[in-house]
Design brief:
Layout lengths: L1 E5 L12 E5 L9 E10 L2 H7 L10 E2 L4 E8 L11 E4 L2 E3 L5 H4 L10 E2 L11 E5 L4 E2 L6 H21 L7 E4 L3 H13 L5 E4 L3 H9 L4 E3 L9 E6 L5 H7 L2 E9 L17 H5 L4 E4 L5 H14 L5 E5 L3 H9 L6 E5 L2
Parallel strand pairs: 11-12, 11-14, 12-13, 14-15, 15-16, 17-18
Antiparallel strand pairs: 1-2, 1-4, 3-5, 3-9, 3-18, 5-6, 6-10, 7-8
Helix pairs in contact: 3-4, 3-8
The structure holds zinc ion (ZN) (2 copies).
Length: 342
Amino acid sequence: MKAMVLKKTSDFRDEKSPLEVAELPNPTPKEKEILVRISACGVCHTELDEIEGRTPPPRFPIVLGHQVVGRVESVGPGATRFRSGDRVGIAWIFSACGTCKFCRAGEENLCPDFRATGRDANGGYAELMAVHEDFAYIIPKVFSDAEAAPLLCAGAIGYRSLRLTGLKDGANLGLTGFGASAHLVLKMARHRFPGSKIFVFARNEQERAFARELGAVWAGETSEPSPEKLDSIIDTTPAWTPVVEALKNLEPGGRLVINAIRKEEVDKDALQRLDYPAHLWMEKEIKSVANVARRDVSGFLQLAAEMRIRPEVQEFKLEEANEALTELKAGRVRGAKVLRVP
Ligand SMILES: [Zn+2]
Ligand SMILES: [Zn+2]
């Protein structure tokens, strides 16, 4: 099969084409696995983290890509969930042990043996991919292949963040940062919690205007106090200042959820300004979000179909993966980037 492979980590500024076209042997589905003929694969910021070594693959060469859509080509011994021709999606969670206490509780995202698609196992920048049948999802009919791909990452993680806030209808929700994931969260929150008011903190006026357009009752700068106290806040920024600032706005017993894989070091001194009585006293909580569990992916796909969420996508050919990544790195993010295969 044809694939775009990564052979080593490198700095994107020096190496503009980190992925190479390669001809790899077709994967054979093992026990309980399915073989998927890929039609679309989303391009995510995490691929840049893998290429540049912030979350490096443990072995090379590796096929990146964790927002995979395709059709079941064949099934391995003992696989019974799908039939050939079924349209399925594969997300960031490739596998987990299935027996530890986290797996048994449905929190397999926390499993010590968590393996990621396109980092710990070959992913979707290819024509074919094999995966355990329990880690694939039926794609709702309302989406085209290219539309479904980007929903498998940012949407699922946003869905998990919203779930972890424990928000109840009518309670106030705050969002710090307003990128792709946050605006999906805003749409989801309005749908699921129609009685809740949403307050958005964002650095630039364009983002704030967009937030109001999507139904935020208020949008202000990161350091502005919100006009009402907030029961839950989701932080999607890479920095610390917004976290410290946001804590002032939390209600007693409120929770702030950090949805970020890594935080930057640049403004870490903001933590020195943490004032216990103002920011944490009165049982305020801080919680992070790690990876996704399968129920987040399936729950979000169902919700996205119900809400008719239609992501705007920009398509590239598989061989153009380097170009897609270059545009993503440069911040030219008009719509989600999706590789079309073949
Ligand atoms: Zn991703
Ligand atoms: Zn486990």
